Amino acid sequence: MNFHNTLKFAQEKDQQDSLKEFRNEFIFTSDNSGNPQLYFCGNSLGLQPKNAKNALENELTDWAKWGVEGHFHGRKPWFHYHKFLTDYSAEVVGAKPIEVVVMNQLTVNLHLLMASFYQPSKQRYKIIMEAGAFPSDMYAVESQVRFHGYNYDDAVIELKPRDGEHTLRTEDILQSIEDHKDEIALVFFSGVQYYTGQLFDIQKITQKAHEIGAFAGFDLAHAAGNAEMKLHDWGVDFAAWCSYKYLNSGPGNVSGVFIHEKHSTNPNTFRLSGWWGYREDKRFLMQRGYQPEPGAAGWQMSNAPVFGMAVHLSSLELFHKAGIHNLRNKSIELTNFLEYVLQQVQIENPKLKFEIITPNNPNERGAQLSLLVLENGKNIFDHLTNNQIITDWREPNVIRIAPTPMYNSFEDVFKLGEVLSKY
Ligand SMILES: *Cc1c(COP(=O)(O)O)cnc(C)c1O
Fold this sequence. Notes:
This protein is an alpha/beta fold and 423 residues long. It has two domains: 7-50 and 324-421, Aspartate Aminotransferase, domain 1; 57-322, Aspartate Aminotransferase, domain 2, CATH 3.40.640.10. It contains 15 helices and 15 strands. It has a seven-stranded mixed sheet, sandwiched between helices. A four-stranded antiparallel sheet has the order 11-12-15-14, with helices on one face. Helix 8 (170-179) packs parallel to helix 9 (202-211) and helix 13 (324-348) packs parallel to helix 15 (410-421). The radius of gyration is 22 Å and the shape is globular. The mean pLDDT is 97. It binds pyridoxal-5'-phosphate.
């Protein structure tokens, strides 16, 4: 693809973009004086879909009108509420509907999934994961191994990039799994690394985990709604993701869970249980003895937090309409264009000294580029913010920029470059 760093070129690309209308479904942020901003933080907290408010108000109205009867008589009866989100969530991650449920929040779900899939034995008790994982994942894993009587340094194998490199090579991940093949109980990676933006080869990692007799689980916080995945076909054992990053469902909102059908339809797969995972036809008989609902729904603990789920549903509808495959195709172009624009402005403006640490192979990244800034990083970040360009800053020296295909345009990317060139 030949790119040009001009407004005209960017606008032409937008004209050809079959997803361009989706931008109008979102509310863009503005500064204190009401100046509109360009938003590149969809990897951290996605923008608000315009229909979110309506979706939420509908549930408030049904609650006011029906009270407890809303469980059965509302427009979307709360008793079944999680089911309204299942098909669309399955599309997002490439799963069968039976393998997916929306419940709780992400880190809580990681613990619940590790209760099922991290059951260490005397010999096989280690977890292998990327070094520098998102802190919540590190703390979750740390407490899981301690819960089973191990200590972190012994039971957790952290993989670091080679000297002088910023991201892990797939071959090195596979080799490390092989090197510890008799000790590993769980291979646990993110889908897209939050700091570097690296998209891991979920399929190969899963295959290798299975080859050595371990489970493979993934935290897809930065991958859901971003990368195109085939969790079912790839045989992934479990995964969880949040709904508020690329999935645009609002701060701290609910999480999605995937449990492969080979485990989730087996009533004997251990899970920590609550009443909402109990088989639906007998749930209200309130009997002793747990009998799970088949599929991932059998991992639910509590009844659905409907207000958050309503907002999430309103956003998932947009993903269903746009199609994750189309979004990914646009995303590859848009991120490649951002990479090109950044390279151009760095040539034009010698004051900009940064290195893009995200892999340059489009198959190894999603919608984010991470700039390791060698000089005046915080100043450059502030310059962007002061000019209505919202990106994010990660200590000690990284600016993350995420052009999300759902609502960012090629013109947005061009304008970011224009502001940067004037630093
Ligand atoms: C954002 C993120 C989280 C956040 O977890 P919550 O439980 O939703 O607060 C966890 N893990 C990863 C990898 C993340 O990127």
